[in-house]
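Objective 1b of the project was to move from sequence-level analysis to a structural picture of ligand recognition. The entry below was assembled by the postdoctoral researcher (A.K.) and checked by the PI before modelling. It contains the amino acid sequence of the target and the SMILES of the bound compound, adenosine-5'-triphosphate.
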Amino acid sequence: MALLEIADLSVSFPTQDGLVKAVDHVSLKIREGRKVGLIGETGCGKTVLGMAIVRLLQSTARIKGRIAYRGRDLLLMKEGEMRRLRGREIAMILQNPTTSLNPVLKVGDQIAEAIRLHLEKSREEALNLAVKMLEEVHMPDPARRARQYPHELSGGMRERVLIAMALACRPSFIIADEPTKGLDAKTKMQIIDLIKGATQEKSLMMITHDLGVAGQICDQIAVMYAGEILEWGSSEEILSDPCHPYTRGFINSHPSRGLVPIPGSSPSLIDFPSGCKFHPRCALATDICKTIHPEMKALEEEHSVRCHLCT
Ligand SMILES: Nc1ncnc2c1ncn2[C@@H]1O[C@H](COP(=O)(O)OP(=O)(O)OP(=O)(O)O)[C@@H](O)[C@H]1O
Ligand SMILES: [Mg+2]
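Corresponding predicted holo structure:
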């Protein structure tokens, strides 16, 4: 049984302009111990997908489909049960350390609070554990830093606080949303090493724009575009032998591959293009691409793609 099995998941938000379809019929399996990268351009629905798993989307979100964790549908779970699972079993490192930390609480207290939500600990025990967690994520001078407020820490240190918080209750599955965004190259390497080390025995979903990061950490990569998964496979396959024109374009837009941008921009999530959602930007598009929405098809056991032209 897969650790996490997402089946035909759709998430939409009613807005004044219409229904924003942020996640559109996504199916994805994560096996125990696997590290899966979720990559794609800004606004393609990565965070919404992650937040749907931990059920932290705002109440206006319309969610359809199934998200089974160890065989149990998270979408059908009572809120209390979900709260117990969140943090203990599944933890999410939220995308923006500046907004996801409380500015008026010392970081040690914030980690301690997260611990006390799940573990029976006194305030003092939880605070000691918080300092230990900061030590574990290689925070310099952890006891002093625990007594500081988020604004007194650097971006890399704030990211470490979020990671410490996520790891504190020893979850089996971690969703990390852009944990290296905005960090300088050296700090980025340290955070990658930290996540790699901390998740050795765990399952991970790594949301990132950065193919380099995905390649270093993940066994498998899912490529998302306008709410859909367009290609999925082992990291080696996806990075060295991608098939979907979008994946190829996305790889070529990476700084290490020459920074060639994909022409055009992502479609509106309210009105999708007909046929393949990528066809208006695809240099190879033919008539069928403009009219028929491609199904996901398997090229190999560990490689599937949603493109009429890949065989
Ligand atoms: N509460 C909401 N109401 C309306 N639209 C929303 C809401 N939350 C997200 N969206 C829309 O859903 C789409 C997907 O957003 P999401 O944050 O998942 O993108 P992302 O892939 O994580 O982007 P980034 O790489 O910039 O973090 C965006 O178009 C966003 O505007
Ligand atoms: Mg995001």
